[in-house]
């Protein structure tokens, strides 16, 4: 890697000469970005409805006998619909929307066409809609996050192809010399998602190919690899790209260290995809596969800490005067949860600890920590940051957004503590053969009740988010030239001090 | 383009290494697997599944059973699976070589099903569990799968796999509750889950 230019330590769209270009980019992209973001909010609401229904079924399966006659609302299908709507519907669509905006801004691209993006948004949402209906209708595969039947996966691949071609054209026609950290992450995410999603779907779900389904337990190995790549090399990079853009912009100062950013990026890319097999400690695999997974998850702590240190040093000693504090609150909380997730993933991989956490609710809590605490919170912040700029409206409904923040944090924290404590009790029970499965079910009852309460709070938070987004979209704002927007003051070239 | 080329090569190399290790390697290794032939008895294990079991595996997949039930047994030093009676030995790759759908699972809100066909052999037990899980396990959070059954008028003899229910759950007289085709298929699949043959790479641990 070359010696960093100073401009690489800050998002490089600060030059006033670029402003005209940026406005024209924004004008061209406004509609397709909005299409992705609005559909993302819709899928978030759909997923939290399913989440609520799934947790209610766990809470009182006996009293919901009406559901026993409705195959499309049975727990297994609803839970799967919940996960897929959350990951592909909400996180991926929102991530793509934010990535489109970041990529074209940071590349300062001359490419203007949004035709491919429209095609992509339409295909992507069709795919997710059909996919969720087919899961509910009994066409799912019961492979977590690969539940969509192959035909649906194929639609999603097409949608992603359109988005991918658009991204390549944007990068090809870029004007900026430097490549900012956010661009590294987005680029890696594009490559890894395309690769892992096609591999996994062709090898596992393709019904009549010569090479699928993969033989025996290699199915489980490929699935574990895919799931880890999906989390670590698709969702995480999109969220981190947003954080690397928003934190320095909101604080009006450059990222603390280019070297830490490099370490955080390459270390993460190098470790994370190797860590999937920890789901099968003690499983029917050669011992090295699981051991590599454990080592990779522990090593991944280094890049996680590098990213955390970088964000911490950037925000430390920052004067918050006038900055969009609410946006920063979302992003900073999400970034902290990323660090926390790194620690939990490493801890739960160690054999001494995994004997009590494997197979339990702890793992569910760990996934929610990643999906909600980390990715969703950063994307909430990113959307609050992006929407007023995209629409040239200064208004962000601070009261609703602040309430949304606290409800999501409280709901998420309750969910995580509940699943972790309940899961540990379950784990200690499972490890002791004298404790019957019935006794464990008894012990878990209060935790499953509390889980439903947490799901309800998160549902309320998500509804508030949808209302806030709807208000920004629908109410007439002060549409005018850039200088009318207060945030413009931050877009002057900040005084750069690179550590 | 130079910097994006570096980026591409770096990501391609690192992610490609994980692809080789966790996709290509297991695919090739497990594709070349052979069943074990016992040198003394000439018995071959494992054997393939009957066709109805494969249909049942589809029903198992469609209803998301895997989100609460695992299908692998760990060694004695890794967990209490063997002490719980979920199997006499750990499961190894060869146990799954003929399975078109492998559901190892990573949640045990319900019990492990690796050897459920060894522990329970009576279809009636499975039908009752699926129809009303809490009649067998009062604290269970398993959903009830009544849609895998239908109530029909008894014509002539009542059918052999009709549910034996009593009290308020029983159907009106002259009617019976029988499993649908899907219900029969999933029970056939569950009963086929028997990994109780001997394999040299996974000896039964001493008591």
Can you describe what's shown?
The complex is a heterodimer of chains A (499) and B (207). Chain A has a domain at 318-492: Cytochrome c oxidase-like, subunit I domain (Cytochrome C Oxidase, Chain A, Up-down Bundle), CATH 1.20.210.10. Chain A contains 15 helices and no strands. Chain A has helices at residues 19-59, 65-68, 75-107, 115-136, 150-172, 181-205, 218-251, 258-271, 287-299, 301-315, 325-349, 351-357, 361-390, 398-431, 437-474. The longest helix of chain A has 41 residues, at 19-59. Residues 1-8 and 479-499 of chain A have low confidence and may be disordered. Chain B folds into 2 domains: 1-32; 36-191, Cytochrome c-like domain (Cytochrome Bc1 Complex, Chain D, domain 2), CATH 1.10.760. In chain B, a hairpin with a 6-residue loop joins strand 1 and strand 2. Chain B is globular and about 80 Å long. The termini of chain B are far apart. The model of chain B has no long low-confidence stretch (mean pLDDT 91). At the A-B interface, helix 2, helix 3, helix 6, helix 7 and helix 8 of A face helix 1 and helix 2 of B.
